[in-house]
Design brief:
D-Maltodextrin-Binding Protein, domain 2; 2 domains; 278 residues; three-stranded antiparallel β-sheet; signal; Transporter substrate-binding domain-containing protein
Length: 278
């Protein structure tokens, strides 16, 4: 009887070859990189995305997950979130809120160990004497100074919850710094995260870091995936949890922000708690 197999190859041997074929889903060793994933993320000319993209990339690298991270530059805030919802961006980061958790796919790992919830003010130098006497939310209200935020930002809601006047800027946020420094554009100061304000003060020389105050609330940043990229949730979440457990995340925070946090002297500042409503 004619055989369909090549001479010298037994049926058992052929089965063994198929079992170790590269196309077999069982062939990948645990230590081998996983299939490439592509993540489109928002980035900014002022580089404020740098820590978040580095944390994402390093966490995926550490678990040998092949990833291509593609930057989409300088999008206004509302447009970024709409693009995530529409599947035109795959991943974004923002302060955790129940609304975001419902509308997007949350990666349930805090990104900055609470630094983002500690807000320091970027102000005009001549206004420092006004802030010298602020020791409460009520005292800040009485100054009638207006805080500036990007349109739709969580902090704008927090400031309003605490009865503080707010200006929401609908365009690229980098333009608002000059509006504050000019002094006649309806916005007086910028509450910024303790992890970002030192770099921003260096970039915008006509503004200074307020010397005495630290406003804080109990929230942190999370990564959010587009619903169209929901399949990536276990990959990204497991990578970030591994980075947290190994100390990688802490090292990246210290490398990115350690000297800035020290320079801000946070423990010596006048701490004022902000109320947060979901």
């Amino acid at each position: 009887m004619n055989s369909i197999f090549s001479p010298g190859i037994t049926l058992a041997a052929l089965i063994a070859l198929v079992a170790i074929s590269p196309s077999s889903s069982a062939s990948r060793l645990p230590s081998e990189p996983a299939d490439l994933i592509v993540l489109r993320v928002p980035c900014f000319s002022d580089q404020r995305h740098q820590f978040y993209v580095q944390l994402l990339r390093s966490s995926l690298d550490a678990v040998r997950q092949s990833a291509q991270i593609k930057c989409v530059y300088d999008l206004p805030g509302r447009r970024m979130w709409k693009m995530v919802g529409d599947g035109k961006l795959d991943l974004i980061w923002g302060v955790q809120t129940p609304d975001k958790d419902k509308g997007m796919v949350p990666i349930q790992v805090a990104l900055t160990d609470g630094l983002v919830g500690q807000r320091v003010l970027l102000i005009r130098p001549e206004d420092q004497k006004v802030f010298d006497s602020v020791n409460s939310i009520q005292a800040l209200r009485e100054t009638e100074l207006v805080a500036g935020f990007g349109e739709g930002w969580f902090d704008a809601k927090v400031w309003r919850t605490n009865g503080l006047p707010v200006y929401e800027f609908p365009h690229q946020f980098s333009l608002i710094y000059s509006m504050v420094s000019i002094g006649n554009r309806g916005v007086d100061y910028l509450p910024r995260g303790a992890n970002e304000i030192v770099t921003e003060a260096q970039q915008h020389k006509r503004l200074i870091i307020e010397k005495h105050l630290l406003f804080y609330y109990d929230r942190d940043m999370r990564f959010y995936l587009s619903p169209h990229a929901a399949a990536y949730k276990p990959i990204v979440e497991n990578a970030l949890k591994a980075a947290e457990a190994s100390g990688l995340k802490r090292r990246l925070i210290d490398r990115a922000f350690g000297s800035d946090i020290k320079a801000l002297n946070l423990t010596q500042r006048r701490r004022i708690q902000l109320q947060v409503l979901d």
